[in-house]
Write a structure and sequence with these properties.
The structure is a single chain. The chain has two domains: about 5-230, no CATH class; about 250-405, Glycogen Phosphorylase B (Rossmann fold, 3-Layer(aba) Sandwich). The protein has a five-stranded parallel beta sheet with strand order 1-2-3-4-5. A five-stranded parallel beta sheet has the order 7-6-8-9-10, with helices on both faces. The termini are far apart. The chain is globular. Strand 6, helix 10 (about 275-285) and strand 7 (about 290-295) form a beta-alpha-beta unit. By secondary structure, it is α/β, with parallel strands linked by helices. The protein has helices spanning about 5-25, 30, 65-70, 105-115, 135-140, 140-145, 160-165, 170-175, 240-255, 275-285, 305-310, 330-335, 360-365, 370-375, 380-385, 390-400, 405, 415-420, 425-445, 500-515, and strands spanning about 45, 130, 180-185, 215-220, 230, 260-265, 290-295, 315-320, 340-345, 365-370, 450-455, 480-485. GO terms for molecular function: glycosyltransferase activity.
């Protein structure tokens, strides 16, 4: 790539600070319809961070060869995917709704959408919540993919924490950061290391004392979510009008589906050890009359939605085994395609995305087949799925398509009619506002803010036993919803170090709730 090409690609990231400032001035046009009454309890203030914490970071995305090696993706530059404020370039020139979206830029997407939020307020003292436009996952790249900085991972986010405390300190000290939230384009596991110890992988961003009080919207939560909540990763579908959104749903609804099931994933593991992905691949290879395979080896599917969406729209069931982590982005691609998700462990979705996929409705739109049944007991997935009555399959597909708005991130600047539909961003903001409201109420009552392990008050009722098709022997076990005191300052404040006794008690209760130890 010559110098001119590099400058053309880098220009959008260099200009972004000015573009964001201009959009903020224009954002009143998008927010004009919101009234004071409609914004009651929903006012959000955006912290004005120096550009080194967000837009300046975008120019560094290509500085880490190890990132591309581990991703095994064909493209050797991430800069093109900054286009369209994180949606990425269009899949082709005539495309209106489909983009080559990289989930790494979810933080940029959230930043852009926040500028259209109808209840922004200029006075932080009048805000119910404070949004921090920090690109945490991009800032983490040197600590994750530069070997010379692996032992410095505890530094990730420390400069931000210092800045939040020192710049206009009244904003932070008003509620000790409990009203602050941000988006993190990664799994919480990657950011929860001990700040005191050096590690080989991950950073300590969520482990910083200042970050205990922040609420983080992550792509995957831990088994004991403390300050984070999982939100769907951005798919490649970002319509700008209600007509285009409805047109896609109509296509998915009427599509003929000759394939019983579909698996989109990489090649089978070469380790030889039994695992669910290898078992699925083996069964699909033997039953090509019933199962379609989309080979996503070496990142082939990362930025090419046509490669997997066309097969998904022709399949009745989409298989989503856990990989390196429990969740898969393809779950949400499949929902948009009307392909009924098949899970092999509850951590893949039922314990993750409660604000977007209602826990009590999982039996209506998904199938759960325990992976142990497939890997160690020889249960055939095709036999389980073929046994489901056709009428029920139709009902499940309709339920899946009803969830499509909740997992879709519409394009910024979309039509008024489409903005009336709550998308994944809207539901994430509603959820984090509920969480912050609980914390603030606890502070006003003179008690330590509580962080519910799991979900907010709208999701505390236990699910009915999940409908494990073909597995009536036992019902699903869902974790109890526990209230855990996350912080316990010896001085009676709300921003101190965690109380070790409280943490140990909470952890013991947590293990019990997950049936790991009692």
């Amino acid at each position: 790539m010559n110098a001119l090409e590099k400058s053309v690609i880098a220009w959008p990231s260099m200009a972004l600070p000015f573009i964001f400032a201009f959009l903020f001035l224009l954002s009143g046009d998008f927010r004009a319809a919101a009234t004071v009454a409609e914004c009651e309890g929903r006012w959000i203030y955006i912290r004005e961070l120096p550009s080194r914490f967000n837009t300046d970071l975008l120019a560094t995305c290509d500085d880490f060869p190890l990132l591309f090696e581990l991703r095994e993706q064909q493209e050797k530059s991430l800069l093109p995917f900054i286009a369209n404020h994180g949606l990425g370039p269009r899949t082709h020139n005539r495309s209106h709704s489909w983009y080559r979206t990289d989930p790494l830029f979810m933080e940029l997407l959230f930043h852009r959408r926040m500028l259209e939020y109808p209840c922004l307020v200029a006075d932080p003292a009048a805000a119910d919540a404070v949004f921090v436009p920090y690109y945490a996952a991009i800032a983490a790249l040197p600590f994750l993919y530069s070997p010379d900085q692996w032992n410095s991972s505890a530094l990730h986010g420390r400069d931000l924490a210092d800045w939040l405390r020192r710049d206009r300190p009244a904003i932070w000290s008003r509620r000790a950061g409990h009203d602050h939230f941000l988006a993190v384009a990664g799994a919480a596991w990657d950011f929860d290391n001990d700040p005191v110890q050096t590690t080989v992988w991950g950073t300590a961003f969520l482990g910083l004392p200042e970050c205990y009080n922040l609420s983080a919207l992550t792509l995957e939560s831990r088994a004991w979510p403390l300050q984070e909540h999982a939100v769907p990763p951005p798919t490649s579908f970002h319509p700008a009008t209600l007509g285009r959104f409805n047109a896609w749903l109509a296509r998915a609804r009427r599509s003929r589906r000759p394939a019983l099931m579909l698996f989109a994933g990489g090649a089978a593991s070469s380790s030889g050890r039994p695992n669910i992905a290898s078992s699925i691949r083996a069964e699909c290879e033997l039953r090509r009359d019933l199962c379609d395979i989309v080979d996503c080896s070496r990142g082939a599917c990362a930025h090419d939605p046509a490669r997997f969406m066309r097969p998904m729209i022709r399949a009745r069931f989409c298989l989503h085994p856990p990989g390196d982590t429990p969740t898969r982005r393809s779950t949400f691609d499949g929902i948009l395609a009307g392909c009924i998700p098949v899970f092999f462990e509850e951590a893949s979705a039922a314990r993750q995305f409660g604000w977007h996929l209602p826990r009590r409705r999982y039996s209506e739109f998904s199938v759960l087949i325990p992976k142990e049944e497939v890997v160690f007991r020889g249960r055939r997935i095709a036999d389980v799925l073929e046994a489901i009555p056709r009428a029920r399959v139709r009902r499940m597909r309709n339920a899946v398509l009803e969830l499509a708005p909740a997992v879709m991130y519409r394009r910024h600047g979309s039509s008024t009619a489409l903005r009336a539909r709550k998308d994944a961003f809207d539901l994430a903001i509603e959820g984090v506002l509920r969480r912050i409201r609980r914390r603030v109420q606890a502070m006003e009552q003179g008690t330590n803010p509580l962080v519910l392990v799991g979900e907010d008050e709208e999701e505390q009722q236990h699910l009915q036993p999940s409908d494990r098709v073909g597995d009536a022997a036992d019902s699903a076990i869902y974790p109890n919803v526990l209230s855990v005191v996350r912080t316990g300052s010896t001085g009676g404040g709300f921003g101190g170090e965690p109380n070790p006794e409280n943490s140990m008690v909470a952890f013991a209760l947590l293990l019990c709730s997950y049936k790991l130890s009692c």
